[in-house]
Amino acid sequence: MAVCDPTDVVEREFFSGGSRFVIGCDEVGRGAVAGPVAVGMAVVAETCGAHPDGLRDSKLLSQKRREELEPLLRKWVLFGAVGIADAREVDDLGIVHCLGLAGKRALQSLHSQGADVSSSVILLDGNHDWLSPVLSTPLDIRTRVKADRDCVSVAAASVLAKVHRDAMMIAQDAVLPGYGWSGNKGYGSGEHLDAIRTLGMTDFHRKSWLVSYA
């Protein structure tokens, strides 16, 4: 089946409706057994112009291509940010709350950069708004299934988040060797689970997700 590249059709609908900015939002690392969950956000406006060639949902791109696109996306968007919630927070608070927590941290970063968050539509991938429950001030949040595939702002957010989180995971190879972080990025591959059985769990693991491997 052919893969469709994302477009700015949805973003332009928001601009035509009076929105000044659209903040694409996507998460990575939700299903991992180690490492943080990360939420990327990308602020776009009508003035941003054409998005970089080859932009797609991060899951549809090679690591090399994501790393090539990331600096181009940083130049294209008005503002970009990634927020994280670490493994201990996932254990203590649960993954859904931590998605919101990471998203809130990304929004705080955007605000500190000068983004007008309150005048933006936040376009969230999926059909569940996990962001609103953690916010003290209501924002205009819209959910859309497959937004990471179809919408340029969300695809950009997915790449920003994926590159950021992957770099964090790769860096752990020097800190906690033997778990294959560079290859598995914290997901539960066979080799990773074997390493947990042999070496045990670390503070980087989501212990509540790995009770059977303790």
TrEMBL record:
Family matches, as Gene3D superfamilies: Ribonuclease H-like superfamily/Ribonuclease H (3.30.420.10)
Sorted UniProt keywords: Cytoplasm, Endonuclease, Hydrolase, Manganese, Metal-binding, Nuclease
Top-level EC class: hydrolase
Reactions accelerated catalytically: Endonucleolytic cleavage to 5'-phosphomonoester
Entry's Gene Ontology cellular component terms: cytoplasm; ribonuclease H2 complex
Cofactor note: Manganese or magnesium. Binds 1 divalent metal ion per monomer in the absence of substrate. May bind a second metal ion after substrate binding.
Sites where the protein binds a divalent metal cation: D26, E27, D125
Keyword Coiled coil: no
Chief site of localization: cytoplasm
Domain annotation RNase H type-2: ranges: 20-214
GO annotation terms (biological process): DNA replication, removal of RNA primer; mismatch repair
Enzyme Commission number(s) of this protein: 3.1.26.4
Record's subcellular location: Cytoplasm
Function: Endonuclease that specifically degrades the RNA of RNA-DNA hybrids.
Protein's name in the database: Ribonuclease
Source species of the chain: Mycetocola zhujimingii
